[in-house]
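Title: Prediction job returns without error message
Component: structure pipeline
Severity: low
Priority: P3
Assignee: unassigned

Description:
Job completed but the reporter wants confirmation the result is attached to the right record. Sequence as submitted:
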Amino acid sequence: MITVKDTVHDHIEIDGVAADLVDTPAVQRLRHVKQLGTVQLVYPSANHTRFEHSLGVYHLASRALDHLGIEGRRADRIEAAAMLHDVGHGPFSHNLESLTHRRTGKYHDDVGELLETGAVGEVLRDHDLDPDRIAEIVAGEGPYAGLVSGELDVDRMDYLVRDAYHTGVPYGTIDTERFVRELTFVERGEVADGDGPAGDGPELVLDEGNVQTAESLLLARALMNPVVYTHHVARISKAMLRRAAGDLLEATATTAAELRRMDDHDFLAAVRDCRETAELSRRYDERDLYKLAVWAEYDDVPDRVHEADHAAETALEREIAAEAGVARDHVILDVPAEPTMRESTARVTVNGDIRRLERQSPLVSALRTAQRDQWRLGVYAPAPATDRVGRAAADVLGLDSDGLVTEVRGAMPTTLDEFE
């Protein structure tokens, strides 16, 4: 057994297959992949890694399995998946995932080949575990996979409290112990009004009387979003690194598959050494970031921009640059994904029925409104060019200049009373 002192969960005891997985290269690599990517440029103490997060996810999964009475090989599979759930992440976590997916067809939870070969595959087979089964659980497939990858999974429980701790932001605080105690599995046919998803095996739900427990997860995520996850400085720096990654692939023999297996240090070294990306690298290293030229609200952005794919966004960047009279690499268009709230489909028990949280909680609609109102389209450029680029972007994108956000409040979340 291994005992680890953790900042969030105090002492974590690791044994069985998870203890043997800890020292594999695939898991140790996560020591060099930051959990929050570039958020450290906003919150200097946000230097925690995917490695410690993986230990936390394993810990909560193990606690939940004990509470649920799940043991034996089934428990070993879940614990292995919890420890391995992030090994597919590339450098700077989710930030480069859209780029590598376009070129490899793989997301971070597509880990089959990583688990099949090398030390991880050997450890799993030594414990009589099928790597393909573990990969399915990481991808959210199969019985009991919802504990690791689902609407109420231990992954988001750990990252919310861990991110809140390391940023010093109090909004992500949730009662993980209560969550773990109140989780239960039900057969899918028991879900009220046919509300459950299709598929085989039991579904993870919160036990009777825990609507507020589920709401706390939603509220924590909603409040962390504008002040941490989508803070404008974090978004600008992430967009600059995505641009650098794309330029690196175009300018060198580096492949997307190789990029996907780099850690943060490997990637930063690669873009520093590449002539075509050296300036973006310098700006990132010195925190000499691009500035906001446009910061536009959801309803002020035309549908054609919301629906633009990568090729269309690239074409728009070129058009903005040409109209502004600046180099194309001095314009970055950042169109976030459509607002979603996966947690709202979590199931809770109410008067003996299993119901979707979104049908039971009036808080969900308010949080959906807040999420939409927090959405921003960004156009970024070097400081001397922001005015020209902003005017050109408004013209090219068809933005209503009266609807543009001209001031960004630092670390100020939206409050629910604005939506009453």
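Comment from assignee: result matches the submitted record. The chain is about 50% helix and 10% strand.
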